[in-house]
Amino acid sequence: MSEALSGLLFDRWPYLLTVVLLLIGLYGMLMKRNLVKKLIGMNIFQGAIILFFIVHAYKHGASVPVHSAVLGDAPEAYMNPIPHGLMLTAIVVSVATTGVALALLTVIYRRFGSIDEGELLRRLRDRE
Amino acid sequence: MIRRPDNMIVDVVVRLMVPAIQIFAFYVIFHGHYSPGGGFQGGALLAGSILLQRVALGTERSQLSFPVRYGLPFGIIGVFIFAGTGLFALIMGGQYLQYDAMPFGLTPVWLRNTGILLVELGVAFAVMGVLVSIYDSLACSSDEEGGRC
Amino acid sequence: MRTFGVVLIVITGLVLLYAGLGLPQFGDPHAPAAEHVSDHYIKHAYHDDHTPNIVTVMIADYRSFDTLGETIVVFAAGLACYLLLRGEPRRRKRADEEDQTA
Questions:
Q1: What is the set of domains in chain A, with CATH numbers?
Q2: Cβ atoms C22, A47 nearer than 8 A
């Protein structure tokens, strides 16, 4: 037990931080009634996942993934480029999806005059 | 639509900053081969420079540098540059997006280098156009008059 | 309902912490994610493209199909925003009026 704890605390502490961030995002998505706050929670969740991938890219004693003549071709000398590239595109896509979500929220507000989850569910139930 | 605030300092600072941001954005795009950067980051910077004008100068005056109606067409142009590069390689006898099949009279290694540059340009245009278009959609929708949005 | 949500979040956290024990150590140069294809990219990127930035070579050459897809996704998101908020204003207004009279 203590071995596992020290493994988490000393060898894998960045994962702990991403887990905390992910749970904050999950809390926002599950517990908040306001849809905009849910969206903010989703963005925090995305940030946690992006950080998790970037943490995986890190290597001790390695340089940024830009080839230089000094370091040569040794794979240990450069950080893992794959998570960097994937998250680069993921950030832009997350901005675009946030835009779509805000547009949907605007349409919902125009239609129902509210973005509160309980209020919306009540209105939908009344309509039936 | 965002109304123009009456503040000369904001005006002047924005006018000074926007060209610097745009030059830096093109540096990021074209120097993406040699340093951190590339189409996504440069496109986001270009979009940021235009959105700065939209916020600070108001929608009315920022039309002069980038009209609202150009947003999505820029996105379309970007996607077409990207897909067109792939199609060009395909037509010239290679596979889709196989840059060294393009007939530019260079060695295959430099052809791939050029192909990366073309693709990054396409990505930059697409990201810039789409980010500006999303902002315009959200900002103009609150306008009752409609106007040019 | 609130307690159910809190319990769900706590369980998720515990599962994630348990899964974290199986992850490679932070900064391990021989982690599974840093082997195989990543090694190949680092070794060959400069010689294939004369481009020092390995990330650029990866997203625009080795995985350009993926990047094409991402660009189209971004464009589709912009198009969705446009159609939701600016597309066909006349029909949208009529729908709003019907909503208010109903």
A1: 2-127 (1.10.287.3510)
A2: no
